[in-house]
Amino acid sequence: MSDIQTDQLPTSDSARGVFPKALCAEDARALSAIQNWRGALAILFQWSVIATAAFAAIWSEYWLVYALAVVVIGTRQHALAILVHDAAHHRLFTGRAFNDVAANLTLAYPLGFSLTRYRPFHLDHHRFSYSDCRKDPEWRYIQNNPDWQWPKSPRAAGRIILMDLLGLNILSLWRLLRQFSPWFIFLHTQAVDGESLRTGERALLLGFAGTVLAALALTNGWAYFALLWLLPMATIATAVFRLRTVAEHAGLTEEHELRSTRTVLPAVFERFLVAPCNVNYHLEHHLYPSVPFYNLPKLHRRLLAEPEFRRNAHISRMYTDLKGGVIREVTQRD
């Protein structure tokens, strides 16, 4: 998904509901340049916030600081997952092998899944999300899971988010994420569901797991690990993941490519809590997936110069605005 399509699209594309991507191809190509230092800085920032929050909680030994740390760490776990998404498009670092190793060790493995297991699922979502949704693995998953079928009534939506925050939906979420876990196929030498782990990744995964287990054993940090890593993942990260994911496509028409995906212009606090790493520019990402996350705001401004984009793009104001934001768009009265 890293190449920009430069062939001129037929003039009938607009009439068929397809945005003529050749209009902005040259600018998108320039914005697709990868800056390794920005990927490294993004990873360092998330882990620095996580470490600071954990240290503050442990040092204070005060329940309110622990509660705040759980919230902060949960939002940063979600940010790590967003960076895995960029790595899935080979947009985090220029060297593809280094991109995958670095993303696995610093982003995916700590969250319990593998970049190489996630990549085929996500790229198929891009390939078929508008052209043939029945082949889109994300669409197929939603059809079999009512909790992911939105819009919902305000009561049903509130119940699901509350259950996320209480950690009661973690098993349901695990059914989605377990297909990306490397551990379920670790011992398989033959491909399972089209995927198998290479010897190098098995060694990498064992080295990572061994290092973490040794560190926890030497520091007797099991309780802190459960409280400040597993708990945020099962509660805050799950709820934020739900809201952000629902905001991307739920409740939208498929009659036009620009209205099948939602871009959100979040408030400042939402950028930290819900939309880290410019993940709110999801429409722009679907149009030009080769553009790394730090250039998506520039791509958004460039696209706004095109009348067709301004006329048809689905752009929402905020996630949490109850009157006109995403929450209002994905909830409806019975």
TrEMBL record:
GO terms for cellular component: membrane. GO terms for molecular function: sphingolipid delta-4 desaturase activity. Residues 63-310 form the Fatty acid desaturase domain. One of its GO terms (biological process) is ceramide biosynthetic process. Keywords: Membrane, Transmembrane, Transmembrane helix. It comes from the Bacteria. CDD domains: Rhizobitoxine-FADS-like (cd03510). The chain crosses the membrane at residues 39-59, 65-84, 203-231. The keyword Membrane applies. This is Fatty acid desaturase domain-containing protein.
